[in-house]
Every structure is written in structure tokens, then in C-alpha cells.
Amino acid sequence: MDLDNPFELFKSWLAEAEKKEIRDPTALSLATVNNAGQPNVRMVLLKGLSSKGFVFYTNLNSQKSHDLKENPKVAMCFHWKSFNRQIRILGSVTQVDDEEADLYFNSRSYESRISAWASDQSDTMRERSELLKKIEDYKTKYKNENNVPRPPHWSGWCLRPSSIEFWLHRDNRIHERLRYNKTHNGWEKEILYP
Fold it and tell me: Is 74 in contact with 68 (CB distance < 8 Å)?
């Protein structure tokens, strides 16, 4: 494994999480800040990883997307309690291109693709039946399960990291911390006090 490349170390830890984590190992907390300086954090799922960065998908009209459009600087945190590891990532997001979003959207289940159309994510609804009716309406509109187009208000965001920190639990709070910082020449590593 190339320890000069934090993406390789991330892939190694994620592979271990996929074996040991009881729940979804791709779950992460995503922190955003709106233009008023108010932070907000929520759980999302990692759906793509490349040398560019870490990709997740959402409704572009959601609160998180509004925050990202106002301030593209974000933080991610993976915490795998089952084997005492954490990864914190800082950086900025850009929207993925349509081809990448289409490819992922088409890999989702029929029900998930329909819900992307039906949900006005983060908006207030009067009652749950309103959402259920919209789901049935879109199922009628898109009867062919193999031909549900991606809604124009649904896409992905790619976090391009400026810093990636790996944290490993040790007894007596003598944890190990390794941080990679992005520079013009690549990645620089530093060891941090616990």
C-alpha cells in the first residue's frame, strides 16, 4: 500500500469496515455551513470514490445543497466504532457531471428512483399521505422500471479534500493520528498528538 497517498489508506480502512462494521460502513457525517455562518450536520452515504474525491448524492433543492451552493467548504467524518477508527476529511465540493450522476441514478432501485422524483426533500409537508400519493403518481408516469430518467433537481457532490486525518484508538487515550495535507506538490503527512 502506498502510504504517501491518503486515498489508498482510506480504501484499506473502508475494506476493513466493510468486513467489521455492523451497519452501513459507507455512512458518514457531513457538515455544511450556510451563508449566515450556521453549521449543520447530517448523515449521508458515500457513493463514489476516485482520485478526485468523495461522492454523495442528494436533491439539489435540499437544505444541504442550498448550504453547499452558498458555501462549498465542508467536513466529512467516518466513524467505525466496531473497530475503533475514524477518518475526518476537509475540503470543498463541486457538483458531479451529468454523465456520472446518470450512471449512479440508473444503478438505484426502481423505488429509490421514484422517490427522488416524489420527495421535495427538506420542504414541509402537511401529512405523509401527500408524499405517498406523489409516489403513486410517479409510478404511474414511469411504469417502465428500466426507464426512469434522473430528475433535474437530483445529482451528486464530490468533496475534493484539502486534508484527510486518520484516527486510530489506543488505550489510555494515546490514540494515533495521521493527517495528510494537500499541497501543490501532492500530499504531505504529519503525525498529531492525540
Answer: yes
Which sequence positions are flagged as catalytic? 173
Instruction: Give the contacts of 58 (CB within 8 A, at least 6 positions apart).
Output: 44, 64, 65, 121, 154, 155, 156, 157
What is the total residue count of the chain?
194
Residues 6 or more apart from 24 whose CB is under 8 A from it? 45
- The conformation of residue 173, written as its DSSP 8-state character, comes to G
Q: Where are the domains of the chain?
A: 6-109+152-192
Q: What is the pLDDT along the chain (194 residues), one digit of tens a residue?
A: 678 899 999 999 999 999 998 889 999 999 999 999 999 999 999 999 988 999 999 999 999 999 999 999 999 999 999 899 999 999 999 999 999 999 999 999 999 999 999 999 888 999 999 999 999 999 999 999 999 999 999 999 999 999 999 999 998 888 999 999 999 999 999 999 99
6-109+152-192 CATH pick, 2.60.60.30, 2.30.110.10, 3.40.50.880, 3.40.50.300: 2.30.110.10
- Show the CA angle centred on residue 30, arms to residues 37 and 8, nearest 5°: 130
What is the model's pTM?
A: 0.93
